[in-house]
Amino acid sequence: MSCAVNFTPASTPDELAALRAKVSEQAAEISHLKLVIAKLRRMQFGRRSEQIDHMIGQLELSLEEIEAHHAEREVLAAAETPTAVAPRAARAPLPDHLPRDIREHLPAHCDCPACGGKVKQLGETISEVLEYVPASFRVLRHVRPKFACTQCDTIVQASAPSRPIARGLAGPGLLAHVLVAKYCDHLPLYRQSGIYAREGVELERSTLADWVGRCHALLRPLVAALRTHVLSAGKLHADDTPVPVLSPGDGQTKTGRLWVYVRDDRPAGDDTPSAVWFAYSPNRRGEHPQLHLRDFRGVLQADAYAGFAPLYADGSVREAGCWAHVRRKFFDLHKAQKSPLAAEALRRIGLLYAIEADVRAQPPPVREAKRQARAGPVLTELRAWLEATLRNLSQKSALAEAIRYPLARWPALVRYSTDGHIEIDNNAAERALRAVALGRKNFLFAGSDSGGERAAAMYSLIGSAKLNGLDPEAYLRHVIGRIADHPVNRISELLPWNVDLAPAVMQARAA
Predict the structure, then answer these.
(1) Are residues 332 and 470 both part of a single domain?
(2) Paired strand residues for 300
(3) How far apart are CA 14 and CA 458, in angstroms?
(4) Total count of domains within the chain
(5) Mode of pairing for the β-strands spanning 146-148 and 155-157
(6) What is d(CA 189, CA 34) in angstroms, rounded to the nearest whole number?
């Protein structure tokens, strides 16, 4: 009787090498997927700030909860030790422009409680409490008396005052409030309708939507003037963000884009008015920014989106990179994997930002000289370190991918070090997009492409007002109350930096 034994042949060196390569590839993919998951979790649940140091457990509470907790502890401590007086920082006085309602509190009896004698006033103790009076609607009744001539019966009457919307019900203040509530405070129109109903005024959402559309048509020339001012700059910040848009007919949404272009040279000591212009497109094709910037000449500071590439082809537009994008890739790695190499990259990039803090708001020649003297060596050492580190990494690892990003865009990233007009990053555009990001948390989608265009126009005016230190609602109230009768060839007089809101603000406070 014979017994057959089967032996598995030994793996060949080529097969072992293939297996090792496969394992290495899978390990790199697992590492990449873990990084993606960590980024998504941080975006959904974590802090948005890019700080490396961990916060203590108590700071995981919201700021409101922390303040409430501290206040509660102070009250309890005062109740337990009523004689103890804790030192407190001096409280800032309440603003002088707020109206004061004086309420005098007299003693219950005007005689001395000890002997019954008469008392005389020695002085007074004054304390102030900040109170809130809910906003209220007012009806402005325009009365135009008619007069008749006693000889020829000719009727004389004043002309009807102009309205922002012909024969419309809403005044400039109400229209400005609706626009700012929707596009600045992120209150959808149906919520505004409910708020107004609680005050006894029924304004349907369809009515509010009609007002928004008519205001957009009214303000279109002003937005065009704003666009001209922004695109006439020698340096622009550009970025884009997705916007869900309802797709008619199929009950679903598509992804539109809001493009932002910012003119802000204040960090370079330039006092030219800052402004922002938004544009909407139904998709993210490169033809849209190319159309927006077809007449622009100068420096474009943006991310590495391929749609901008044709603009750089003939040299009329120069590309400037964004170190914030570079830093973010290493920050995500450090946050997810505690990589010491990512931490070292962050430290070196931090040296560049420390230099920028010293040259902010200085003239371009000064910025250029200091950058070349201080940032130049740091950039040279950083590139050498990135190249040396990359040679020792798996080319499929997430860290290698993060390193290849700046190396592939090095000329654009270091251009700021030789030009004092350019910034180290594109944060000006990202700050302008915060309003859109906050709005997305309150709006499910834009109703149509025209809704996206209206949003772009309002974001432009509100964002530019903020950049110039104006209250957006006061600015829009001023503009809406005048633009219908304002000569179109003098529309630039209504741009944020050309208006004086002081009289209008004082009049509103007096009312």
Answers:
(1) no
(2) 236, 319
(3) 64
(4) 2
(5) antiparallel
(6) 40
Q: Given the structure tokens 């700059």, which residue do they identify?
A: 233
In a shared domain, residues 398 and 486: no
Range of the domain at 475: 172-228+445-510
Chain mean pLDDT for the chain: 84
Given a cut of 50, whether residue 1 has pLDDT beyond it is no
Q: What CA–CA distance (Å, rounded) separates 402 from 478?
A: 49
CA distance linking residue 281 with residue 395, whole number of Å: 37
Cα dist from 223 to 63, 241, 263, 276, 489, whole Å: 37, 20, 14, 10, 14
Looking at the fold, whether 343 and 429 belong to one and the same domain comes out as yes
Specify if 477 maps to a domain: yes
Domain end, chosen from 415, 436, 457, is at 436
Phi, psi torsion values for 240, nearest 5 degrees: -150, 165
Q: Are residues 300 and 403 in the same domain?
A: yes
What's the pLDDT tens digit per position in 17-51?
777 777 777 777 777 677 777 767 666 555 544 44
Place of tokens 């340096």: 235
Distances (CA, A) of 464 to 22, 227, 271, 293, 449: 54, 11, 15, 19, 23
For tokens 């509010």, the residue is: 208
Distance (Å, rounded) from C-alpha 33 to C-alpha 491? 53
* pLDDT 10s digits, 169-205: 889 999 999 999 999 998 989 999 999 998 888 999 9
- Total number of residues shown for the chain: 511
Same domain, 397 and 287: yes
Q: How many Cβ atoms sit within 10 Å of the Cβ of residue 458?
A: 24
Report yes or no on 358 lying in a domain: yes
Are 370 and 352 in contact by the 8 Å Cβ rule? The answer is: no
Distance CA 139, CA 116 (A): 54
Token pair in block for residue 12: 């060949």
Q: Are strands 298-301 and 155-157 parallel, antiparallel or unpaired?
A: unpaired
458 pLDDT tier (thresholds 50, 70, 90): very high
Among 411, 436, 461, which residue terminates a domain? Answer: 436
